[in-house]
Sequence to fold (868 residues):
Amino acid sequence: MSLIIGHARTAAARLLRRSPASILLRRDSPEAPALGRRPVRRMGTARVGESVSTAYEECSDQVLDFPGGKVSFIPEMRFLSESLGERIGCYRVLDDNGQTVSGSTFHEVSKEVAMKMYRHMVTLQVMDTILYEAQRQGRISFYVTSTGEEAINIASAAALSNEDLVFPQYREPGVLLWRGFTLQEIANQCFGNKEDYGKGRQMPIHYGSKKLNYFTVSSPIGTQLPQAVGAAYSLKMDGKNACAVTYFGDGGTSQGDFHAALNFAAVMEAPVIFFCRNNGWAISTPTTEQFRSDGVVIRGQAYGIRSIRVDGNDALAVYSAIHAAREMAVGETRPILVEALTYRVGHHSTSDDSTKYRPIDEIEHWKSARDPISRYRKWIQRNGWWCDAAESELRNSVRKELLQAIQVAERVQKPPLEELFKDVYDVVPSNLKEQEKLLLQSVKKHPGDYPADVPV
Amino acid sequence: MGCGASRLEPGEDIPPGLLPFRRRLQELKRSRTEESRRRRRERKDSIVSTTELLRPEERDADDFETTEEEISRAVAEKMTVRDALNSAIDEEMAADPKVFLMGEEVGEYQGAYKVSRGLLDKYGPERVRDTPITEAGFTGIGVGAAYYGLKPVVEFMTFNFSMQAIDQIINSAAKSNYMSGGQISVPIVFRGPNGAAAGVAAQHSHCYAAWYASCPGLKVLSPYSSEDARGMLKAAIRDPDPVIFLENEILYGESFPVSADVLDSNFCLPIGKAMIEREGKHVTITAFSKMVGYALKAAEILSKDGISAEIINLRSIRPLDRDTINASVRKTNRLVTVEEGFPQHGVGAEICAVVVEESFEYLDAPVERIAGADVPMPYAPNLERLAVPQVEDIVRAAKRACYRSVPMAAAA
Fold:
């Protein structure tokens, strides 16, 4: 028993959870070094080699020296309030009329970048409309729109470097478009043909491009967050001048992965931008049923992460905030949390009808009065960079290009049978070669039992 | 070397794990002898033919008997499994700057079971990374780091806790290469103790071999000896695919003889190959991890009853070395599978299916499956002992398979 007590005393309290295993260790490994060989830290924040003893040298009645910094003693019994009273402000540059808010600070955007941003926002909007219809016509099995979140998609991508690693959720295909992914490549993925980089293995909208540093979309919610921290840690170890960026929704912040990722990123000082698209709805769950905190931004501080709330339907605000966040993340190797307030104008996916659980008025309000594209268009038009003729030409040409891409994607052959067995491992193992051989024989022997559109 | 290796003292009993070395040595000598006889035959025709011209090893090549001294030279040292794992990680970290170790207590505390002893001092906190306590978190971080080119070795304090990170392992690590069309490889190793230890009950004793081995995209290894541990962990770290590396807490402190080859920093074992620990002709016994030792002990006991058991150390659970298993069963015509995990959908069940599919007509007796009891592990030592396979269980099963469950005298 003394062993147990001794162990519990010397090891950090967090070890207690695993004490049975640790106790066994002492029993089964006599040559294990004694815990006392190294100075044991109780709740350390110091790095290896740093002294932790200084914290206990001073003794004061007013102040407690505690890992993490000095803590004042206070006579009142004071509970922290569950809220700040006033909600955290939302950074905005453009007002609803597309005019810059007086006194707003923002990162200047050149005409060239500004126009590229607009074109991509429109492209994304048109693409969503057409591919959504394609799903409705039964040409693809599934689709997810980004409607209402075009500014988040494009403006954040514009503020990043193409070297930055993107760990998307699934409502950020605009980042790919910005980086040069073509509508043909989009269509190839959605139709799962042999030109798809995912070789027809993933359901529609699960895009991925190694070339464009865009990691393949992961369906389970929140898995990409800790992964982004890990990739950011790789960037840090390699001394790269880049950061990782991960996108997620308000619902995703309830996942354990969200909390783990933020905590790890802070502790590991990883250059990562956490971009929360707070669009009000996690399928049918409104944010009021998702969390009781003041949204997501407030949580950054609890993890020791610099955070900002931004108007997600204001392209200039998103651009400026991400630009600044990136500079801090890369320059100071630290995580940054961005919460963009927006609204999911479309249904969650093609498997959802959101009018069943939210008022149509609400959707219409965000669709018309708060549309990020029209707000941004007012600004560029005010600058004299855009006109109605250019608008209809752009929309027509995107529409034409995508319809053409869809026709091509539909005609391209589906992936061949051999692709069924590739990439499970780096090298195809013998059991899979065997299975492939058996399948091939079976297909040849009973062609009528198998689909005709699988090249063998 | 400096990993606590010690010489096998002359005259010391050769442990069962050493027997393969003796066998290999004898094979080597046999082939050398044949080669030298051939040369001598050739030399008889030549003018110059004296033993002086032969190389020293050829002069006494006719001597078939392997001396204890020769064995102790070939298997110069003994090493604990803990040191084997430690040295494997150490060497791979030294060889490849992309390899790093992460997990709870791997740094300052040197690993819950001291497997990472000394590595923090040697490689610093950036490469021996203590993490906060969130299995899902650090597993996801490892997966992300692997996506982007690092080669993380992620330690679970026990594989029981890997269940908190199962989504990251299955949905991300195992599937990403396939889902991305080969764009994202995940060179990561998840390692830690697996299966029953002693007195640690249900949430520290579960064997996850069958769980992970049922998932394509993963490779699942489970070492028994120090040679296994070193060679397979090095292979796992070098492998481009995600590898689940199932260690055993009880084996950490156990010493096994290791040859100079095994101690070489280039030593590596092939993934997917089983090892015949002991040749036999009457019954095949498959086992992995700690159960290999039990099976070897059972084989000793069986030999006294005239039953010659062939012991297969699976080493790799996925891919499974079906060829070795089937070849052995075709020779012995009888099979006993041994594992600590649960029987239903277990490793033994898979081996049984493999043999029924490929060698059904060779079987002379029903396959015997020895597995842990179909219950979460109890804590009380008496119940715990009843819940995991014992040497006697293996002996009885092998005898049943050989229709020798009754004493030989009575049968005669």
